[in-house]
Amino acid sequence: MKYKTKEEFLDTVVDNYKDQKEFHQAVEEVVHSIWDTAVANPEYGKFNILDRIVVPDRTIIFRVPWMDDNNEVHVNLGYRIQFNSAIGPYKGGLRFHPSVDLGILKFLAFEQVLKNSLTGLNLGGGKGGSNFDPKGKSDKEIMNFCYAFMNELYRHIGRRTDIPAGDIGVGGREIGYMFGQYKKIRNAFTGVLTGKGTNWGGSVIRPEATGYGLVYFVVEMLKMRDDSLDGKIATVSGSGNVAQFACEKLIELGAKPVTLSDSGGFIYDPDGITQEKLEYVKELKGVRSARISDYAKKYNVEYFEGKRPWSIKCDIALPCATQNELNFDDAKELLENGCFVVAEGANMPSTTNAVRHFIDKKILYGPGKAANAGGVAISGIEMSQNSTRIPLKRDKVDGLLKEIMQRIHTTCVKYGSKDDFINYVDGANIGGFVRVADSMIDQGIV
Ligand code: NDP
């Protein structure tokens, strides 16, 4: 092993990639978990896996010029990080949000490598997107932007190379426009993107998969304490794709979600968000200008402007909005109020100190790379349906989702159990890492 301590290694990451703080955070968390495993296996040192695993295979940055409805020309940055293809073609979402930069996309792509490994499927890791802000844009502007983005991205992706999907700001509509443009340029109808409409190669349950999978993972965690979702109160953040379908599954399995949020604030509905109210949220969020505060007006509940929902008493907290949305103070307050399960629908929503607190207090804490892997897993199933050209039925795909989430849980237990506690962070990081590292060694110095 080239490094004597993990701190020595982490210092090199910080030095080499200045101004990429989210990437440092993601690497640090992983290295704390895998260090002993990496030191114990001399092959990992001999092949210098640590240095190699934190450098993307390639990083593509490009100009995206597009025209708005007033004929004004704008330029955004487009990115695709092809991080690691040791176990399969690059796979990971595209994010359109003004906060997007290299550090954020590198953290997401790095997490994706280990997450995809955990699914047990042959999927490498990547991520991409743009600092384009879809909020307030017309349909035509969104279409123009998606076309312009694909005008460059098409040359870097392909069904055997790199298969992007959606993420924040990229849903079914955006995937449709990008797929249309790819098909036009390449004159090829292939499964180059996932999250497609079911009429043109998409899989049933793909929109639901991240949120449903998250709740299936919570069910498995609760089983470890002979407990179930029945009657549990859950706080959920976000109100987009992941949050909506997490709520839907919570309701179906007998829990009571009481909050939802967006970047403006959160609503608290002590009677519980029902399926009927959730249908309203889905409709609301389909309208770009709509805000979660509209829910408060319609159902006469409290709206907390500029706040996050972690002060509300609950058994289970599911952060499903964005990175670093739950800090140490939030973590303390949650636990003081009796919360004993935290599972992440979003990627890295808890800060490093919040994560440490959850682990110190030995609650059931499911990190995003394990708990939210259902989305990419069903993307993998969408890819196999595209290859065979045989669409699967809803029950079949839902069954596969449950099976994969159970398998991920088993891997976390296998690598994360110590004494009477399951450290899911260690379990997910070590379980994901070993498969990728061993595959890199099998393939030599590439
Ligand atoms: P959506 O765009 O559908 O929804 C995002 C939600 O998060 C919105 O309610 C949005 O509010 C809120 N949000 C975004 N940025 C912020 C912020 N800075 N502060 C507060 N709230 C914010 O995205 P998804 O539901 O798809 O993604 C949510 C999270 O889940 C992300 O971390 C994503 O990486 C992760 N994820 C998604 C997967 C998927 O399949 N979609 C798979 C695995 C993980 P507003 O409308 O006000 O911006």
Rg, nearest Å: 21 Å
Quick check: average pLDDT? 97
The strand order across the widest sheet is 1-2-4-3-5
Unreliable stretches, pLDDT < 50, 5 or more residues? none
Strand elements, count: 15
Shape: globular
How large is the count of helical segments?
17
The percent of residues in helical segments reads: 40-55%
CATH superfamily annotation of the domain at 209-366: NAD(P)-binding Rossmann-like Domain
Examine the coordinates and then state which fold CATH places here, giving the name of the CATH topology of the domain at 209-366.
Rossmann fold
Helix vs. strand class: alpha/beta
Instruction: Describe the sheet with the most strands.
Output: 5 strands, mixed
Which CATH class of the domain at 209-366 applies here?
A: Alpha Beta
Quaternary structure annotation: single chain
- The rounded distance between the terminal residues' Cα atoms is 19 Å
Ligands, ions, cofactors = NADPH dihydro-nicotinamide-adenine-dinucleotide phosphate
CATH architecture label of the domain at 209-366: 3-Layer(aba) Sandwich
Bin the strand percentage: 15-25%
Structure characterization notes:
This protein is of the alpha/beta class. Among the domains are: 58-188, Leucine Dehydrogenase, chain A, domain 1 (Rossmann fold); 209-366, NAD(P)-binding Rossmann-like Domain (Rossmann fold), CATH 3.40.50. It is 48% helix and 16% strand. It contains 17 helices and 15 strands. It has helices at residues 6-16, 21-40, 42-46, 49-53, 102-118, 139-153, 172-186, 206-223, 241-252, 275-286, 293-299, 328-336, 352-360, 368-371, 374-388, 394-416, 424-442, and strands at 58-67, 73-84, 90-96, 125-130, 162-165, 233-236, 256-257, 259-262, 265-268, 302-305, 316-318, 341-343, 364-366, 417-418, 421-422. It has a five-stranded mixed β-sheet, sandwiched between helices. Strands 7-6-11-12-13 form a five-stranded parallel β-sheet, with helices on both faces. The protein has a three-stranded antiparallel β-sheet with strand order 8-9-10, with helices on one face. Helix 9 (241-252) links the parallel strand 6 (233-236) and strand 7 (256-257). Helix 6 (139-153) crosses helix 7 (172-186). The longest helix is centred in the C-terminal third of the chain and has 23 residues, at 394-416. The mean pLDDT is 97. NADPH dihydro-nicotinamide-adenine-dinucleotide phosphate is lined by residues 166-169, 210, 238-243, 262-264, 320-322, 325, 345-347, 372, 375.
